[in-house]
Amino acid sequence: MSSENKKVAVIGLGSMGMGIAQSLLRDGFKVIGCDVNADALARFRQAGGATAGRPSDIDPDCQIVVCVVVSAVQAEDVLFGPEGIAATLQSGALFIACSTVSPDFAVHTAERLASQGVLYLDAPISGGAVKAAAGKLSIMASGSAQAFAKAKGVTDAIAEKLYRVGEEVGQGSSMKMINQLLAGVHIATAAEAMALATKVGLNAGMVYEVISNSAGNSWMFENRVPHILAGDYKPHSAISIFLKDLGIVLSTANSQRFPVPLAAAAHQLFTMAASAGMADWDDAAVVKVYERLSDITLP
Question: What is the value of pTM for the model shown?
């Protein structure tokens, strides 16, 4: 990789973005971290990175920008807001969009950047904070061959698996949408199962052990139920995230006149949890809805 491509900006130093930025540092990149959180910027400076308080403060000669913000609203602001980076991106630069957004948003954003000669890689990520920190994410990406070629050093550093979903922007976001449909439904059903198990008098720890080694298991069951057993809802991935992501599923399905009854039911469960004041709790806290609706007592 040329020396100019060894300078990378990472916008959004949350649990995933921080891991991505640190993985790039380990791989020899000069990394500029950008976040509104002063503590995150301080932690990244301690790790050896450079920082910028606003996207517009990022060096104009930075040719690759990795965006790891939470939502389309934030991504729009990062790019085109009053302090956005789009105005300073040079022709030939690459914007790697890792946020979970609707396919339509990805397409329209790519078109706006293309008008100024900026490449766009539609590259949602999966794997959580642990895999982000280890540089072992899964990326489901779509975009031009030129965008993939320019991104190669970055994707090699941060991902264990890069899936080239297609050449059209929006296909990567569509794939992530399908992943989030499954993930959200699996979390909701895991919570429902654990609540019913408690109601009928089963030992919750035994339920986890048995199901984790049986056909009813899922990655989300295995990963989230320990949060329920510990009664620990410090957010790793918050209720609000799946409220947004399942909202993308419902909106896209509605535009296609396609029924998604299971996703809709899961969305309602997350909505109930958010309405009960748990929007910022860990997504496993959807189980608390059942505790409030019945006479069960969870750990």
Answer: 0.94
SS (H, E, C) 180-243: HHHHHHHHHHHHHHHHHHHHCCCCHHHHHHHHHCCCCCCHHHHHHHHHHHHCCCCCCCEHHHHH
Give the HSE-up count for residue 240: Cα atoms under 13 Å, Cβ half-sphere.
8
Residue type, 201: G
Write out the catalytic residue numbers. 176
Helices (H), 115-170: 128-134, 145-158
Domains belonging to the chain, first-starting first, are: 3-168 (3.40.50.720), 174-293 (1.10.1040.10)
- Reported as a single tens digit per residue, the pLDDT across 115-146 is 999 999 999 999 988 999 999 999 999 999 99
Instruction: At 166, list the tokens.
Output: 């297609």
Cα separation of 297 and 299, whole Å?
Answer: 7
Of the chain, the end-to-end C-alpha distance in Å amounts to 51
